[in-house]
Amino acid sequence: MDLREAARYSLADFFVGDTDDILAPPAEYTEWRAATTWATALYERSMLGAPASRVAVEANGDKWPVINLASYNYLGLATHPETVAAAKAALDQYGTGACGSPILSGMTDLHRELETELAKFLGRESVMLFNSGYGGALGALSGLLRKGDACIVDAKSHLCLIDGTRLSGAALVTFAHNDARALDAALSRAKGKRRLVVLEGIYSMDGDVGALPELVAVAEAHGAPVFIDEAHSILTLGARGRGAVESCGVEGRIGLQYATFSKAFASVGSFVAGSKATLDYLRFYANPYGFSCALPPPVVAAVLAGLRVATRDDLLRVRLRENAAYFRRQLHAIGLDTGESTSHVVPIILGKHRELLYMLSYALLARGLFVAPVDYPSVPDDQVRFRASITAAHTKAELDEALDILELTVARALRAAA
Ligand code: PMP
């Protein structure tokens, strides 16, 4: 298989194979992986330090110093002195791990403190913590939805929301992205069933914000509760950082607010915030909660310290917004397409040029820029892209250096290909 032929395939082509042995992957997959080692080596790359705005990455046995536009460390909390000190202190007091499910022995006073502070911050009755973002969404949806229910999900929703719905046995109904009329039609079609509407704050591949005022109004008109995934918007959107529900003015009208600790909180895990009655039920029916170890206390301490740093004032959020707006404006000035993005998640869309995506990734690394390539099936086949994550920690000089590299590589290559 030569390079040109290999570029015609994607992971979606090998999901179903024809081997008799479950442990033997399809022969064509193995051949394709061998032919595309140069491209797939871009994934699972080793970072040789903290996910800060500058980092070294490992490639071909060498260290490459890069400006990092690939990490979700949106507020720079991964290396903030207060989050690091809190994690170290918790390590001394509580040890490395919780060593038990929260239901049995994994809960600590630190976990309870984080639940209480998050609930207070969001103005909700109750909060429960999960040890993963993906697992939290999976647990919350599969813990509440039942066979016979309908889960009405925006077409651009993250896979954890889709998988949680599938696991529950509820009908999965998608509606056109951010389209209030399509949501209305989907809710009407599912009339008579218990229905849940699932939305996101910032969509992770496009960087646009959920059209919450319109969509929440439609859900309310149908009497359907709303679940919102604020993975990329918690601490970053809203004047005080309470997410898209705050920036869109729909706080108090959302049944369940879910967000991860892996992005602006710069850690790992997630939480769901809602009424005490809902969460008292969910704690015993969300299997990723009851049947999996609680978050390690040093992680909980770092998240708690991060919450305090990020809500003490609005400086980090303001800097993030200024950086993101500047970066998007400058990308447009060099002729690059950022799609619908209005946030710190900034796609640089290459369209159907998959070969360019991989070749340019190497050129970018060699010039000192690390930005994530995103291929089909994570995005449509004709919309492959780089996805830049802008943070409050990037300096203007770093953003300018990144923009110069993007002009010399991506913008130039796309002009030549046009
Ligand atoms: N929801 C969204 C919208 C996401 O983008 C992600 C991860 N990128 C998740 C949930 C899962 O979060 P985690 O990586 O913390 O498991």
Describe the structure.
The chain is 42% helix and 16% strand. The chain has 418 residues and is α/β, with parallel strands linked by helices. Strand 6, helix 9 (212-221) and strand 7 form a beta-alpha-beta unit. The longest helix is centred in the last third of the chain and has 22 residues, at 396-417. It is globular and about 60 Å long. It starts with a helix and ends with a helix. The structure holds 4'-deoxy-4'-aminopyridoxal-5'-phosphate. 4'-deoxy-4'-aminopyridoxal-5'-phosphate binds next to helix 6. 4'-deoxy-4'-aminopyridoxal-5'-phosphate binds at residues 132-134, 137, 158, 160, 200, 204, 229, 231, 260, 262, 270.
Short recap of the structure:
The chain has 418 residues and is an alpha/beta fold. The protein has 16 helices and 13 strands.
Order of helices and strands: HHHEEHHEHEHEHEHEHEEHHHHEHEEEH
- Shape call: globular
* Ligand roster: 4'-deoxy-4'-aminopyridoxal-5'-phosphate
Rounded Rg: 22 Å
Termini separation comes to: 27 Å
Unreliable parts? none
Question: β content, as a range?
Answer: 15-25%
Number of helices: 16
Largest sheet: 7 strands, mixed
- The mean pLDDT is 95
Based on secondary structure, the structural category is alpha/beta
Total beta strands = 13
